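Appendix B: complex inputs.
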Amino acid sequence: MNRANEKTSRWQTSRGTMQFMVYAAVCLAILLLPLVVQDDFMLNRIARYLVLAMVAMALSLSWGYAGILNLGQAMSFGIGSYCMAMALKLRTVPVHTGSDGLPDFMVWNNVTQLPWFWEPFWSLPFAILAGILLPALAAALLGWFIFRGRVTGVFVAIITLATMIVLNLVIIDQQQYTGGFNGITDLAQLELFGVTFDAYSSSTYYLVAISLTLSLFFALAITRSKAGLILQAIRDQEQRVRFFGYDVALFKTTIFAISAAIAGLAGMLYTIVMEFASPTFLSVQLSLSIVIWCAVGGRQSLLGAMLGAILVAGVQGALSESETFLDTWTLIMGGLFVLIVLFLPNGLASLIDLGRRRVRTPKSPDNRVAHSAELKEDRT
Amino acid sequence: MDFVVQQFVTGLSIGSILLLVALGLSIIYGSMGVINMAHGEFIMLGAYGTWALNAAFGLSLFPSLIVVFLGVGLIGALIELGVIRFLYKRTLDTILATWGIGVMLQQAIRLAAGGELRYVQMPPSLSDSVSVLGTDVSAYRVFIFLAVAVLFGVTWFILYRTSAGMKLRAVVQDPAIASSFGIDAGRVRTLTFAYGAGLAGLAGALVAPLKSVSPEMGASYVVDAFFVVVLGGVQSLFGTVASSFILGQLTGALAFWQNDTVAKALVLVVIVVLIRFRPQGLFVTRVRT
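Resulting structure:
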C-alpha cells in the first residue's frame, strides 16, 4: 500500500513538472514570437489576442477552479480599460483637449470642470493601481453579498451578468463623464520608465506578453497551493467543505476578486493595444465570447482557456476580412458553443487529457476522481 | 395626493410589463431549474413575428398574438427536444447552451430581417389615453395591464386547476415517482418549456408597439426578468407578481427622481443588498440551489 502511494505521488509530481514545462514552453514561444514576426501590424493583432487570452485565463480561474460562473467577466475588463483610458486621455496633447486640459467630449457636452473622480487619474501610478484594484474591490463587494448569502449556481451567473449590463447602460447614459457610446478616444501613448508604448511596436507586444506570462504563473501557483485544492473541493462539494470548518464564502470571494484583478489588468493592456476604450469592452457580446473561449479550450485548464481564446479569436480575426463571413461566423460560433457544452463539457483540453490517460495510466487516481464526479452528477 | 396616485399608476404600469417579461422565465426556472438565457431572444422573436405578420400579411396586433404564441412556443419545444433535454443533470450548463442558442437566434434574425430598427403600429383603438384615478395613462398601457392579468390568471388556472398542471407539479416534486405513476415527464417538460417560450413571445408582441424592435432588444428585457426572479424567488407564482409590483413601484419612484438608467442601477444595488439577507428571494421559504 505504502509503495503504491509513493508511486502515485511520484507520478503526480512528474505530471506536475510536465504541466509546468508545457506552460513555460508556451510562454517562451509567445515571448520569442517577435523574432519571427517583424510586421508591426501583425504584432499588434497578436498582442490583442494575447490580452483576450489573459481575460479567458482569469475566468478559468474562477469558473473552472472554483465553480463560480461569472457571466459578467467583461465588467472587470471594462473597468480596467476605462481606468487606463482616463489616465491616457488626460495626457493627450492639448490640441485634442479643451481648455485647462478638459477632455474634448466633456467640452462638447458643456462640462466646465473636470469631475472629481477624474482628478486622481492625472497620476499614472494611481490609474494603474485603480485598474487592478477597482475591479477587484467591485468583485469583492459583490462577492461578499452573493457568497455570504450562500447564493450559488445559476443565480451567481445571472446576477453577475445583470450587474455588467447595468454598468454598461450607466456608462452609455452618463455621456458627459464617460464619452458615452463612443467611449474614450484620441489617447496619448503610455510612457513608463522612459519607454513609450506605441500600440504598433514590439515594446507593447512585450508588455502584453510579459504580463500574460506573469499572471499565468501567478494563477498556476494559486491552483497548486492548498487554497487551490480547497477551491476545487468547494467546486465539487461545497457543503462538505463548509462542514470541515472552512470559510467557504471567504475563499470564493477572494478568488472572485483575484480573477477580476487579472481581468482588470488585461483591460488596461487592451486600451493600450487598441488605443481607445469603449462600452463594447463591457458588453454582453464580449462576456459571452470570454465564456465561449473558456468552454472551447477547457474551463478547468488555465492554458486551455488561454489557447482557446487565441484560437477562436484568431480564426474570427482571420475571417473578419470579409463582411458576409463574419455574419455567418456568429451563427457558427453559437452552434459550436452549444455542441461543445453538450458533448465536450471540458473543452479541447479534455481531449488531450483523455488521450494521455488512456495511453499511460489506465488506472490512475484521476480516474477515480472522475468516477466519483460522475456519481455525484447522477445524484443531482 | 394627486402626485402619489400618479406615481402609483406609473409604477403599476411598469410592474405589469415586468411581470409580462418575467412570467415565462419564472415558470421555466421554477419547474425545471433551467435559467433560459434565450428568454430575451424569445421576446425579440415575438416582436419580430408581430412586425413580419403585419408587413407581409397586413395582420393587426390582436390576431398576431395567437400566431406568435404558437410559433415561439413551437420553437421553444424544438429547443427543449434538441438541446435542453440532455442537460437536466447539469443545470449550470443549461445557461451556457441556452445562451448559445440565444446568440444564434439573434444572428439569424439579423441576417433575415436586417439590423435596422423596426416599428410596430399600435392598434388605433388603443392609441388614445384614458383617465385612471385622475391620471392620464395611455390606453395601450391599460390594455397591457389587463392582458397581463388575464395571462397570469390563465397560467394559474393551468397550473392549479387542470390535470396537465397537476402532472407538472408532480414532475417538479419528484420526477421518478411521477414517472412510475405513468406521467410522461419528458413530455410534460417539453410542453412547459414551450408554454414559457410562448409567453415570452407574447410579451415581445405586446411590448413591440411601445419601443422600437431590433435584434438586440432582448438583452434589456431579460435583465428586468432576472431582477424579478432574483427578488421574488420562483417557487410560487405569487412571489413573481409581488416582486414585479415592488420593482415596478421602486423603478417608477427612482426614475422620477433620476432617469431610467440610474433607476435601474439603484434597483440592482437594492437587490444585491437584499440577497445577503434573503438569499432565497422575498417570497419563498426554501433556499435556492
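Chain B has a mean pLDDT of 84.
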